[in-house]
Design brief:
There is one protein chain. By secondary structure, this protein is of the alpha/beta class. About 35% of the residues lie in helices and about 20% in strands. The strands form four sheets. Strands 2-3-1-4-5-6 form a six-stranded mixed β-sheet, with helices on both faces. The protein has a six-stranded mixed β-sheet with strand order 9-10-8-11-12-13, sandwiched between helices. Strand 11, helix 8 and strand 12 form a beta-alpha-beta unit. The radius of gyration is 27 Å and the shape is elongated.
Length: about 500
């Protein structure tokens, strides 16, 4: 199913006028980082917004600063200017309490030269403190200002009235098209499920044409934003020698063509802030950025941990990888800057060995050598990401699952501690994304961890789940005569291992 198209409304203004607060108000979530210090937002962030039933895509931008083009603020301003291309409307936000500034006038003059219709928004207009600023804003020549308070939600109805003539007709037409596409996609999904059930085949519980949510994580300066820019073939995200440029987690929808099959696939690329050791993260804003990146991992399907070939594998990389797997996301690892790596063969083999030694659950995780500068290995990495998502989303038919289970028990029966047999009766798959299995039996408290690992390894290798995280829970029948035992098994409370 194609990503939903919506009219695009870009929020523009100088630093600290409340653009990100307004963005969060429109999308109904705290997606953008907000802080009192100026310059928090650096990259464009997009989100589906709703305003009294009017749906559109809101775009938060970096604060406009009058600095040298080569500086970080100058590069941020260039990103803001580019964001207006293809937009349906712009919201020019000023701070009504601070009044009109020379920078506001510069932005207003630039906007008057553009073809995109502009709505002038006087933010922080609650009370009487903003009245003078509202009157001053008429001199910008952009029509009547819309007084609002993004923080308190005041003036939303007036903002709706200003936007509806600009994007209302397009929004209505696109909504009708989206409803038709959703109905077709639902019919196709039901047909696939029925065909799989009739044939007794494995069912991947996701539309294979659905967008892949792919998050890029790693330490600062590993090249995450550069890699995404390379894939998009445009300078969509800010990059540079400064560490920690990315602050917000930025999602970008993108169409990728598989060079082998020629098939077009849709990917939601998610860039995240660099994650340093916790002890080194003392700045409040950096803490917010890292927390935002971890939330992005929660919503991703596949996560790429990007390593720096010039620095190799570090303990922090293993911690990030472990955190991704604990969240149940499908993980793959890419070694970036391969074009400048020294002794690449030894480096690759060394990282592979260190991964398998550092964390047992990292054994078999896909490992790729890539270059964000040259594009080496990126198509292979993306093709593997789709395969990994399929494994992560797959359900094994109960009959086939228990045939494997019976064979596994026959090949290596459970131990009998103290001469009493541990009975494993049957297995069922209770969920996907990640795959979750429950084994029912008796005396499960006595089952050794080594035997659980044997079963987990069999699920991964013989049922084709590969390196995706697998959850295994053991449950015993409840003893009605023992009020102290909820389920009899050591994982009967719903916990499990992977």
């Amino acid at each position: 199913m194609k990503p939903r198209k919506l009219p695009q409304v870009v929020i523009i203004g100088r630093p600290n006028v409340g653009k990100s607060t307004m963005f969060n108000r429109l999308v109904g979530k705290r997606l953008a980082l907000v802080d009192d210090q100026p310059g928090v937002t650096r990259d464009r962030r997009m989100g589906e917004a709703g305003l009294l039933g009017l749906e559109f895509e809101a775009v938060d931008t970096a604060g406009w600063e009058n600095e040298d083009d080569a500086s970080l603020p100058g590069r941020m301003r260039a990103q803001t200017q580019v964001s207006l291309k293809g937009a349906d409307a712009a919201l020019f936000v000023i701070d009504a309490r601070a009044g009109l500034t020379p920078l506001d006038e510069e932005i207003g003059q630039w906007l008057r030269e553009q073809e995109v219709p502009v709505v002038l928004v006087a933010n922080k207009s609650e009370g009487s403190a903003g009245e003078a600023g509202i009157l001053e804003s008429y001199s910008l020549g952009l029509g009547d200002p819309v007084p609002i308070s993004a923080e308190h939600g005041e003036g939303i109805a007036d903002l709706y009235s200003a936007l509806i003539p600009l994007i209302g007709e397009k929004a209505e037409q696109l909504e009708l098209e989206a409803e038709a596409e959703a109905a077709i996609a639902a019919d196709e999904a039901a047909k696939r499920a029925a065909e799989a059930a009739e044939a007794g085949e494995e069912l991947v519980e996701i539309d294979p044409t659905a967008p892949l949510s792919l998050a890029i994580v790693g330490r600062p300066n590993a090249g995450k934003s550069t890699l995404i820019n390379r894939l998009l073939q445009e300078d969509r995200l800010l990059t540079g020698p400064e560490a920690g440029i990315t602050r917000d987690s930025i999602a970008v929808d993108w169409r990728w063509t598989d060079p082998e099959s020629g098939e077009e696939r849709i990917i939601k690329l998610i860039d995240t802030a660099g994650m340093r050791k916790r002890a080194k993260v003392v700045d409040k804003l950096e803490k917010l950025s890292v927390a935002d990146g971890l939330r992005a991992v929660d919503y991703a399907e596949v996560v790429v941990l990007l390593l720096d070939a010039t620095r190799g594998l570090e303990v922090q990389d293993l911690k990030i990888a472990n955190q991704v797997l604990e969240e149940g996301r499908a993980l793959m690892i890419a070694i970036n800057k391969w074009d400048i790596a020294e002794d690449p063969s030894a480096l690759f083999n060394g990282i592979r060995a260190a991964l398998e030694e550092g964390l047992a659950q990292l054994r078999g995780v896909p490992l790729f050598a890539v270059s964000a500068m040259t594009g080496k290995g990126l198509d292979q990495m993306l093709a593997a990401a789709f395969k990994l998502r399929d494994d992560w989303s797959r359900r094994v038919p109960t009959a086939a699952l228990n045939r494997w289970f019976d064979d596994a028990l026959a090949a290596n029966p459970p131990p009998a501690p103290g001469g009493r047999r541990i009975k494993l009766r049957y297995i069922t798959q209770v969920g996907t994304r990640p795959p979750r299995f429950v084994i029912f039996g008796t005396r499960l408290d006595d089952l050794p961890a080594s035997y659980e690992r044997y079963l987990l390894n069999g699920i991964r290798k013989q049922l084709g789940f590969g390196a995706v995280p697998v959850r295994l829970t053991l449950k015993s029948p409840k003893n009605p005569y023992d009020s102290n035992k909820g389920g009899g098994g050591k994982f009967s409370g719903g916990q499990g291992r992977d």
